[in-house]
Amino acid sequence: MTTKHEQILNYIQELPIGDKISVRQIAKELSVSEGTAYRAIKEAENKGYVSTIERVGTIRIEQKRKENIEKLTFAEIVNIVDGQVLGGRNGLHKTLNKFVIGAMEVEAMMRYTEAGNLLIVGNRMKAQKSALQRGAAVLITGGFDTADDVKKLADELELPIISTSYDTFTVATIINRAIFDQLIKKEILLVEDILIPKEETYYLKVGEPVQKWFDLNERHSHTRFPVIDNDFKVEGMVTSKDVISEDRLRPIEKVMTKQPITVTLKTSVAAASHIMIWEGIELLPVVDEQNRLLGIISRQDVLKSLQTIQRQPHVGETIENLVFNHLHKIDDTDNGKLRYQFDVTPQMTNQHGTMSYGVLTSTMIEAVHRLFRTLKKGEIVVESKSIYYLKPAQIDNHIEIVPDILEIGRKFGKVDVVVYAKEYIVAKAMIMVQFIDR
Q1: Domain that holds residue 300
Q2: Quick check: 68 pLDDT over 50?
Q3: DSSP letter at 207?
Q4: Is the dihedral of CA 389, 392, 395, 400 positive or negative?
Q5: Who's near 160: CB < 8 A, 6+ residues apart?
Q6: Same domain membership, residue 375 and residue 339
Q7: How far is Cα 43 from Cα 72, in angstroms, rounded to an integer?
Q8: Among 44, 89, 104, 307, which has the highest number of CB atoms less than 10 A from its own CB?
């Protein structure tokens, strides 16, 4: 039986794209409290079903696919630029494929303006009208209004015309930043990307006997299963160690591990891998906000996905990408130690022009990663680190990192790292790592 919360989410998903919704309307339509309706609408917003815009309200939008996440909807543009919708509200759910800055004559402007574009322009009504007629939305800078006939045309064509108090340069910078952030998000692998849904996996139910574990084990060769109740809420996990010496008629809830560790769809795969390593877990249940089973992820799938994502081209360049692309190995012929070097670029510095804390930390850890890869130790996770900063590393400095293994075992390693700028030591670190089992 579905809960009221689920009923509201299903209702919202079935609404036509572009429909406007409100807490009061949902509460009246489905006979639920306004508090329940509000919570469900907020979850729908988190899932990307709706978007809430100041002075406009909440509208149903098309949920973006992972591969198209870099495309922003016009509703998101309104929020990004603190804009006001002057017309064409029914088109806010649409996505833009390109924005054009209108800083030329109208005829020249229209040569670059196509359907699905967003024209960023000032108080130039002829340009605004021409852009709408070509199928493009319009963003008016400087806080200007527009003529009533332009607003009417926007309504007829269902193409948003938006006004913002920002200037053209600021607006272009803000939108560029938003697209770049979306591209970086695209690179982050989430649990939902590798989930094995519950329809394709196996589980036990509260009240079933231990014998059911042996039946599933014999049929599918798995040794770990989530235990759920009648509402699919995860109550525990059961493994071969839990049942091996138990009476086969005993209820499964008497031998299971209660309150197991779980993850959600939006947990990053990297975070899930850390949980699995620290806790020694081979399988994690994936649950929703009500702790109901959605599926599972296994350690094997996590490792496979992390290896795959490392081979993908990076679209949005993060600090880690900068470090990875600029760090190069050199051999120290005097003592046989490996050294890694790179130059401090402007992107790596803080407001004082010195190498930022995050970049320096990422550089040390990446050097340790590479050192262990040369020893065929595979992937690692950092367990602890102690870093000491002695001198600032300036922009354009030539940096050398020397990682030196102090201790190494089957499961862990301890490394001393020294960072040089010219002949000076700028930082030292002691880093403890664990090796990931393959």
Answers
A1: 192-307
A2: no
A3: T
A4: negative
A5: 74, 78, 85, 87, 88, 89, 91, 92, 94, 137, 138, 154
A6: yes
A7: 20
A8: 44
The CATH number that applies at residue 241 is 3.10.580.10
What's 256's DSSP letter?
A: S
Q: What is the pLDDT of residues 4-54, one digit of tens each?
A: 777 888 888 888 877 888 888 888 888 888 888 888 888 887 777 787 766
Q: Are 26 and 32 in contact (CB under 8 A)?
A: yes
Q: Are residues 215 and 199 in the same domain?
A: yes
> Which has more pLDDT, 187 or 165?
165
Q: Is the pTM of this model over 0.85?
A: no
Residues whose CB is less than 8 angstroms from the CB of residue 65 and which lie 6 or more positions away in sequence, other chains included: none
Task: Give 121's strand partners.
Answer: 140
314 in a structural domain = no
Do the domain assignments include residue 312?
no
- Contact residues for 59 (Cβ-Cβ < 8 A; gap 6+): 18, 19, 20, 21, 50, 51, 53, 75, 89, 92, 93
Domain boundary (125, 156, 184) is at: 184
Q: Examine the domain organization and report whether 208 and 242 are in the same domain.
A: yes
Token duo for residue 151: 């607003």
One-character DSSP codes across 52-71: EETTTEEEE-PPPPGGGTTP
* Sign of the CA dihedral with 169 first, then 172, 175, and 179 last: negative
Two structure tokens written together for 156: 């007829």
The answer to whether residue 24 is domain-embedded is yes
Shared domain check, 172 and 204: no
DSSP category for residue 411:
S
Structure token digits, residue 43 = 């979850």
**Chain CA centroid to CA 151, Å:** 37
**47 and 145 share a domain?**
no
Structure-token pair, residue 362? 């990422």
pLDDT band at 414; cut points 50, 70, 90: very high
DSSP letter string over 349-403? B-TTSBB-HHHHHHHHHHHHHHHHHHTT---EEEEEEEEEE-SPPBTT-EEEEEE
Q: State whether 132 and 169 are in the same domain.
A: yes
